[in-house]
Amino acid sequence: MTVARIIEEQRKTTQSGKAQDGRWTLEFERQEAQRPDPLTGWNGSGDTKTQVRLRFNSKDEALAYATRKGFEVHIVPAPPVSMKIQAYADNFR
Predict the structure, then answer these.
(1) Distances (CA, A) of 91 to 29, 37, 46, 64, 66
(2) Quick one: which of 79, 76, 55 has its CA closest to 5?
(3) Where are the domains of the chain?
(4) Which residue has the higher pLDDT, 64 or 83?
(5) Residue 55: which of 91, 86, 87, 22 has the closest Cα?
(6) d(CA 3, CA 29)
(7) CA dist list (Å): 46 to 52, 54, 66
(8) Which of 5, 11, 62, 65 meets the CB 3.0–4.6 Å disulfide criterion with 56?
(9) 3-class SS at 91?
């Protein structure tokens, strides 16, 4: 059975806007182990599903897609964002 992760995307630290908040990504977990290529030494495998990333506007849309396709699902929520609000003058105390 194909295993998929549904991941809540995090806002980048350099972004202050909330336009892309609430987006979810469906990724497939690796089905076979990576092995070094004898010629180049790079790691790789024959599993091409790990290259696929599907983006959804909500968790429900991603979950509905995964259940419709028959994937086993692991949901990974984004960690909570904690902001410390301080004044510029606090840097010189």
Answers:
(1) 44, 51, 52, 48, 48
(2) 76
(3) 3-12+20-92
(4) 64
(5) 22
(6) 6
(7) 14, 20, 23
(8) 62
(9) helix
Instruction: Please state the pTM of the whole predicted model.
Output: 0.71
Please tell me the distance from the alpha carbon of residue 67 to that of residue 5, in angstroms, as a whole number: 12
Three-state DSSP state, 44: strand
The arrangement of secondary structure in 3-12+20-92, i.e. its CATH architecture, is 2-Layer Sandwich (3.30)
Region of residue 41 (phi > 0: left; psi between -120 and 50: alpha; otherwise: beta): left
Q: Taking CA 28 as the corner, what is the angle to CA 74 and CA 8, rounded to the nearest 5 degrees?
A: 55
Tokens 């992760």 belong to which residue?
Answer: 5
Q: Sort strands 53-56 and 43-44 into parallel, antiparallel or unpaired.
A: unpaired
